[in-house]
C-alpha cells in the first residue's frame, strides 16, 4: 500500500537513507557491509524515532504555552504490538523508507518481522489502550499513557503435546529502540510499615506514614504518533528498581545472594504481567504492581501540574485521569493521600478534586474480575490507604444515613468493604465512588452495569454511568493489516478512506452490488488466505485449502468466551462428515488461537482439547479434506494482523451478557468477515449497523440468560437429552475417543457441562449448530456471501476508536479545543 498518492520525492528518499546510515554508524556502531538484519531494523527504528521527536517536542511546547488540558490514561496493559510500520505509516514515510532501503539492498518488509511484539498486554484491554493512545494523538488530545515496563510481560505460549506451556517472553533481549530512559524521572514508592498520628504547629491532626520498604520507579517514555503526524503523545512506563543496587556490607561478608535480595524483590514488580494470584504471595505481588504504577503516575502528573500552575485547586480543569478497568482503582485512595498528607489540603476539598479529576471505565460484569483485596493484605501492605478507604466509606455511609437511607441491605451493597466470606476491599465500588464518570464499553454492557454489578450505586448516583462503545484504530487494523483491501478501497472511494473512514466507508455500499468490485474483493481476500496458509504450513506443517471457509476464533481462552462451544461443534461436524455422506459439506478450516491464564486449569484443558481434536481430524482420511483444525500458538498482535484479513467467519459466541464489548468483532467485520455470534457486547450495536441479514445471530439473549441464572437452572440434562447430536459429542469426549492416551481426560469437563453449565454451552448448542448450517448455505451462494462481506466493511466505520475518543474527550474529559 502507498501512504501517499504520489511517488516518493527523491530528496526525501535520499534524506531518509542518509539518516538510517548515520544511525547505523553512530548509534548501532556498524557499517553497511557488516550490518546484520537486526542492525538495519534498529537503525531504521532510531531514524524514524527522530522524525517523531521533532513533532513531539513541538507538541509539548505548544501544550505548555497554551496550558492545554492533559489526559492521563492509567492502564495495567498497553498491547502496542510492533511499532515500525505503525510509526512510518502515520508519519507518511512508509514508501519513502521502503525506497530508501531498497537503494542499499535492504528489504523493509523483511526487517519489520524482526521487531518483537512488546509484551505489555494480554488481550482486548491492552489492545484497546493502544488504539486509544493512537487515536488521542490523531485527534490532538494531549495525553499521557501510564503503565508498567514489564521486563518479560505476558508469557510466551508454547504447545507441547497439546498442552499450553508458559515460557519467558524475551522481547527486551535486544533493547527497545523506541523508548527513552528517563533516569532523572524517579519516584519513591513505599509499602508496609505503620501510620502515626501527630498534631502540627497549627493544631491540625496529621497522619504520618512510616513505610517499611521503598522502591524506585524509573520512567521510560515511548512516543506515540497520530495519523499524518497530527501530534505525538507519550506512553510513560515505569520500571521498578531497588533503592540500593547492592548491599555491599553483606556482599563483602560472603552473603552474595542476600546482598541482592532486595534488588530481586523490588524488580519483581515490573518483571511479569499478571503473576498468578492463586497464592497469597501472588496476590501481594499483583497489588504491589497496581499501587506501584499508580503512585508513580500520580506523583508524576501532580509534579507536572505544579510546574505549570501555582495551585492544585484547578486540577480538574487541567487534568483528566482515566482509570482503565479496576486495576488502577487504588488511585482514589492514593490521590487522596497525596492531596491530604503531602499537599495538606482539607479532606473535603481533596475529595472534591479527586472525584472531579478521576473517571473510571468498567470492562467486565464478572464478579471475579471486579477486583477485591483482603483487608488484612491491604492493612499490611498499604496501611495508610486502608485508613483512607475506611474514612471514605464512613463519610459515604454517614451521608446516606443523613439522607434518611437506613436500609441495611442497601448500605451493605454500596459499602467499600465486603463483610461476607472474609473482609475484603471492593475496588470496583472504590473506583465508582471516587470518579465523576463511570462508563461501560457497549450499550448492552452499560445497561447491564446499571442493572447488576452497580445497581444500588446507580440508584444513588444516577448521572454517573454512561456509555462509550469501544472502537479500533483503522490505521492498524485496515491500513497496515490489510494493505490490499486498503488499496482497493482507495481506488474506489479516494483517500478519504484513510482520513475519515467514518464518513467515507458508507460510500462503499453501492459497490456490494457490482460484480467487478466483488471479484476484486474476493481476490484480495484469497491473497491473505494464501499467506495465512503458508504461515500455518511453516509453523505447524498443516496444509490448508485457501478456497475453504476460514472459520476463526482468536482471543483469550476463557470459559465465558465459549471456545468450548466451538469445539463441540467441530466434533459434531467431524462426526457428521464421516457419517452423513449424502449431505453436502462446504470445506472448512477451524482456526483457534489464544492464551490461557497460567493458573486457569479449565482454560488450559480447552486448549488441550482443541489440539486433541485437531490431531484426530487432520489425520483422518475419511474426512476427505472437508475439515481441518488449527491451533496457532502464542497469539499476539502480529499474528492477529495475519489472521484477521484472511478470516471468512468471525466467531463471537460468548454467553450473552458476559462480554463487555469485544473489539476483535470489529476488526474482523472491517476486513469483510461475517460474524456468527450471540447478542452480546458490541455485537448488538454491530447487528444494528451492519444488519442482521449480514450476520449469523443465535442463542439466548442476555435477558434469557439472566432468567436462567435467577432460577439457578444450570442442569443441562434436558438440553442434552433433546439433542442427540450434542449427546453423541459428549459421549465421544467422555469415552476418550479424542484422548486415547488418557481416556478419562475429559470426563470432568463433560460432568461440568452436564451438572453445572454456568456458561450455557449446552443450552445454546442446537441454535449454534443451526446457525452454522446457515453459514454453509450462504457460503455456497457465492455472490450473496461476498455481497454481505462488502457490506460488513462498508458499515463498520462507526466502530472507529477516533469516534470513541472523541466522545470521551467531549463528554468526560472536556479536552478538545
From TrEMBL:
GO terms for cellular component: cytoplasm. One of its GO terms (molecular function) is glycogen phosphorylase activity. One of its GO terms (biological process) is glycogen catabolic process. The modification N6-(pyridoxal phosphate)lysine is found at residue 667. Keywords: Allosteric enzyme, Carbohydrate metabolism, Cytoplasm, Glycosyltransferase, Pyridoxal phosphate, Transferase. Its cofactor is pyridoxal 5'-phosphate. The keyword Transmembrane does not apply. InterPro entries: Glycg_phsphrylas, Glyco_trans_35, Pyridoxal_P_attach_site. It is found in: Cytoplasm. Its EC number is 2.4.1.1. This is Alpha-1,4 glucan phosphorylase. It comes from Pseudomonas mangiferae.
Amino acid at each position: 500500500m502507498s501512504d501517499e498518492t504520489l511517488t516518493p520525492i527523491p530528496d526525501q528518499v535520499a534524506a531518509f537513507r542518509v539518516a538510517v546510515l548515520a544511525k547505523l554508524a553512530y548509534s548501532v556502531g556498524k557499517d553497511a557491509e557488516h550490518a546484520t538484519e537486526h542492525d538495519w531494523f534498529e537503525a531504521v527504528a532510531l531514524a524514524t524515532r527522530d522524525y517523531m521527536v521533532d513533532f513531539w517536542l513541538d507538541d509539548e511546547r505548544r501544550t505548555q504555552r497554551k496550558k492545554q488540558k492533559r489526559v492521563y490514561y492509567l492502564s495495567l496493559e498497553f498491547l502496542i504490538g510492533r511499532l515500525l510500520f505503525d510509526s512510518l505509516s502515520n508519519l507518511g514515510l512508509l514508501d519513502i523508507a521502503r525506497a530508501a532501503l531498497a537503494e542499499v539492498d535492504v528489504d523493509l518488509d523483511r526487517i519489520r518481522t524482526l521487531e518483537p511484539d512488546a509484551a505489555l498486554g494480554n488481550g482486548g484491554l491492552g489492545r484497546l489502550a493502544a488504539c486509544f493512545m493512537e487515536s488521542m494523538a490523531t485527534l490532538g488530545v494531549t495525553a499521557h499513557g501510564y503503565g508498567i515496563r514489564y521486563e518479560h510481560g505476558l508469557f510466551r505460549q508454547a504447545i507441547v503435546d497439546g498442552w499450553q506451556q508458559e515460557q519467558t517472553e524475551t522481547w527486551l533481549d535486544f533493547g527497545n529502540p523506541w523508548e527513552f530512559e528517563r533516569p532523572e524521572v524517579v519516584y519513591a514508592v513505599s509499602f508496609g510499615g505503620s501510620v502515626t498520628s501527630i498534631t502540627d504547629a497549627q493544631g491540625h491532626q496529621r497522619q504520618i506514614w512510616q513505610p517499611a520498604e521503598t522502591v524506585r520507579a524509573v520512567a521510560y517514555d515511548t512516543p506515540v504518533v497520530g495519523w499524518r503526524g497530527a501530534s505525538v503523545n507519550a506512553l510513560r512506563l515505569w520500571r521498578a528498581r531497588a533503592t540500593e543496587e547492592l548491599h555491599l556490607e553483606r556482599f563483602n561478608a560472603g552473603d552474595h545472594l542476600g546482598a541482592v535480595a532486595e534488588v530481586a524483590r523490588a524488580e519483581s514488580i515490573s518483571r511479569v504481567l499478571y503473576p498468578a494470584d492463586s497464592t497469597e504471595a501472588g496476590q501481594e505481588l499483583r497489588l504491589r504492581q497496581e499501587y506501584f504504577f499508580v503512585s508513580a503516575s500520580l506523583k508524576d502528573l501532580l509534579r507536572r501540574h505544579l510546574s505549570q500552575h501555582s495551585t492544585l485547586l484547578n486540577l480538574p480543569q487541567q487534568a483528566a485521569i482515566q482509570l482503565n478497568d479496576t486495576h488502577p482503582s487504588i488511585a482514589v485512595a492514593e490521590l487522596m493521600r497525596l492531596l491530604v498528607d503531602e499537599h495538606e489540603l482539607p479532606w473535603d476539598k481533596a475529595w472534591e478534586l479527586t472525584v472531579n479529576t478521576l473517571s473510571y471505565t468498567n470492562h467486565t460484569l464478572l464478579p471475579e474480575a471486579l477486583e477485591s483485596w483482603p483487608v488484612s493484605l491491604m492493612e499490611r501492605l498499604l496501611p495508610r490507604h486502608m485508613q483512607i478507604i475506611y474514612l471514605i466509606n464512613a463519610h459515604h455511609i454517614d451521608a446516606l444515613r443523613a439522607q434518611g437511607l437506613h436500609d441495611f441491605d442497601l448500605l451493605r451493597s454500596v459499602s467499600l468493604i465486603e463483610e461476607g466470606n472474609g473482609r475484603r476491599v471492593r475496588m470496583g465500588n472504590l473506583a465508582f465512588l471516587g470518579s465523576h464518570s463511570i462508563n461501560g464499553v457497549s450499550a448492552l454492557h452499560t445497561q447491564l452495569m446499571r442493572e447488576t454489578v452497580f445497581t444500588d450505586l446507580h440508584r444513588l448516583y444516577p448521572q454517573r454511568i454512561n456509555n462509550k462503545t469501544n472502537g479500533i484504530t483503522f490505521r492498524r487494523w485496515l491500513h497496515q493489516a490489510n494493505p490490499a483491501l486498503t488499496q482497493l478501497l482507495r481506488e474506489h472511494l479516494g483517500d478519504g478512506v484513510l482520513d475519515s473512514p467514518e464518513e467515507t466507508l458508507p460510500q462503499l455500499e453501492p459497490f456490494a452490488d457490482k460484480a467487478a468490485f466483488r471479484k476484486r474483493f474476493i481476490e484480495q481476500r484469497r491473497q491473505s488466505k494464501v499467506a495465512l496458509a503458508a504461515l500455518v504450513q511453516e509453523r505447524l506443517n498443516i496444509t490448508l485449502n485457501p478456497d475453504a471457509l476460514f472459520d476463526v476464533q482468536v482471543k483469550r481462552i476463557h470459559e465465558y468466551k465459549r471456545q468450548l462451544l466451538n469445539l463441540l461443534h467441530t466434533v459434531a461436524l467431524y462426526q457428521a462428515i464421516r457419517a452423513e455422506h449424502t449431505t453436502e459439506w462446504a470445506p472448512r478450516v477451524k482456526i483457534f488461537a489464544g492464551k490461557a491464564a497460567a493458573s486457569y486449569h479449565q482454560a488450559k484443558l480447552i486448549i488441550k482439547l482443541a489440539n486433541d481434536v485437531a490431531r484426530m481430524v487432520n489425520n483422518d482420511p475419511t474426512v476427505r479434506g472437508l475439515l481441518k483444525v488449527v491451533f496457532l500458538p502464542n497469539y499476539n498482535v502480529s499474528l492477529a494482523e495475519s489472521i484477521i484479513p484472511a478470516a471468512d467467519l468471525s466467531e463471537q459466541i460468548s454467553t450473552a451478557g458476559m462480554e463487555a464489548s469485544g473489539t476483535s468483532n470489529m476488526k474482523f467485520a472491517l476486513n469483510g468477515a461475517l460474524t456468527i455470534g450471540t447478542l452480546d457486547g458490541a455485537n448488538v450495536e454491530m447487528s444494528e449497523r451492519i444488519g442482521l441479514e449480514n450476520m449469523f445471530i443465535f442463542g439466548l439473549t442476555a435477558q434469557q440468560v439472566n432468567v436462567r441464572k435467577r432460577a439457578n437452572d444450570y442442569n443441562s440434562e434436558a438440553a442434552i437429552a433433546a439433542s442427540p447430536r450434542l449427546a453423541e459429542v459428549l459421549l465421544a469426549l467422555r469415552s476418550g475417543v479424542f484422548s486415547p492416551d488418557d481416556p478419562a481426560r475429559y470426563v470432568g469437563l463433560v460432568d461440568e457441562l452436564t451438572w453445572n453449565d454456568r456458561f450455557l454451552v449446552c443450552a445454546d448448542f442446537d441454535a449454534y449448530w443451526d446457525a452454522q448450517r446457515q453459514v454453509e448455505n450462504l457460503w455456497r451462494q457465492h455472490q450473496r456471501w461476498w455481497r454481505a462481506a462488502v457490506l460488513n466493511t462498508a458499515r463498520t466505520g462507526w466502530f472507529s476508536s477516533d469516534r470513541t475518543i472523541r466522545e470521551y474527550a467531549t463528554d468526560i474529559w472536556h479536552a478538545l479545543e
